[in-house]
Structures are given as structure tokens and as C-alpha cells.
Design a protein that fits this description.
By secondary structure, this protein is an alpha/beta fold. It is 39% helix and 22% strand. The protein is built from six helices and seven strands, in the order E-H-E-E-E-H-E-E-H-E-H-H-H.
Length: 183
């Protein structure tokens, strides 16, 4: 079983912000496959589906970004999902808007959501997909919690579609294949 986690913050206030790209990728993937993220448990919302013959959990933690690890650990423990079968999706200021990058491991790069997951699981060996939002001119917190410009939003929307397709490739052909095609 695979666990695909989209990081974000719950509530209408954060819906269209740069920091909620993980949620948006999960929603786009679910929409493209014809199901809803409608079960509530494990400090989040999830769906358990068979995708390309693989049992997959799509999960959106509702613990707020800085405590994402708690929710991810809770659902992974309940369903007995091993660390190599977890993929985390989140926004990244180090990438320009519209870029996606898949990596099998690495540091948090200053992202509090993935940092908390690294701390909870006590390893940087966690698959991740980063969606570029670009660098802020001023305050990083205001930037990530703000809404992208129209030009950025268009690029980000394309990246969300590519991210959804990259996840499908990962589920069909493995993580190395998805990295080769989408990085």
C-alpha cells in the first residue's frame, strides 16, 4: 500500500495560498481518477482506493503545516505503511513557479511541514515532490500564506496537473521512472 500525502493548512482562509499546493495536487489527482477525499480520521481527510492495481491512500493532514508529521505517522501506523511507500507533496520557494521536483530523500530546505515529518520519522529518507512557488521579495511567511499572482497561478496550475500525472507514473512504473520523466 502507498501513502500519498499533500501538505497544506485547513480552512477557506488558506485554500488558494501558495502553502496549500500539496492539498491541491491531491484534489486534482482524486478528481482525475473520479473519487473524493471524503473520509475524516487520523487528523486529516483521506481516500483509500485501488489505483492501477495498487492500494493507495491519498491524505490531507488537518494539523496545520508545522505538525504534519503527527498526522502522517498516525495514518501510516494504522495502515502499517512502511516509510519507502510514503510520498509527501509540498510547496517550495527554492523552485520557480510551475516547476516540480521529485527526490527520494533530502533536508527540509526550511519547509516546516516536511521538517516536522523528518523529525517525527527521524530520517530524511522520505520520498517527496516539491512544487515551485518562487522566492519572496520580503517576508517568507506572508508570501507562502499569500495568493500567487495571476501569472504565477497559471504556472502553478500547470505544475499541479504535471504533479498529478507524475504520481500516476510513480504508481504505474515506480519512483525512478517518475523522477526521470518529470524532473
Amino acid at each position: 500500500m502507498k501513502l500519498i500525502v499533500g501538505l497544506g493548512n485547513p480552512g477557506k482562509k488558506y485554500e488558494k495560498t501558495r502553502h496549500n499546493l500539496g492539498y491541491r495536487v491531491i484534489d486534482r489527482l482524486a478528481d482525475s481518477l473520479g473519487f473524493d477525499i471524503d473520509k475524516e480520521a487520523f487528523n486529516g481527510f483521506y481516500a483509500k482506493e485501488s489505483i492501477f492495481g495498487e492500494q493507495v491512500l491519498l491524505f490531507k493532514p488537518t494539523t496545520y503545516m508545522n505538525l504534519s508529521g503527527t498526522a502522517v505517522q498516525e495514518i501510516a501506523s494504522f495502515f502499517k505503511i512502511e516509510l519507502p511507500d510514503i510520498l509527501i507533496i509540498y510547496d517550495d520557494m527554492a523552485l520557480e513557479p510551475g516547476r516540480i521536483r521529485l527526490r527520494p530523500a533530502g533536508s527540509s530546505g526550511g519547509h516546516n511541514g516536511i521538517q516536522n515529518i523528518i523529525e517525527v520519522f527521524k530520517t530524511e529518507d522520505i520520498k517527496r515532490m516539491r512544487i515551485g512557488i518562487g522566492e519572496p521579495e520580503n517576508n517568507g511567511i506572508d508570501y507562502v500564506l499569500g495568493k500567487p499572482t495571476k501569472a504565477q497561478a497559471e504556472l502553478i496550475d500547470i505544475a499541479i496537473g504535471e504533479a498529478s500525472e507524475a504520481i500516476k507514473d510513480y504508481l504505474r512504473n515506480g519512483f525512478t521512472s517518475a523522477m526521470a520523466k518529470y524532473n
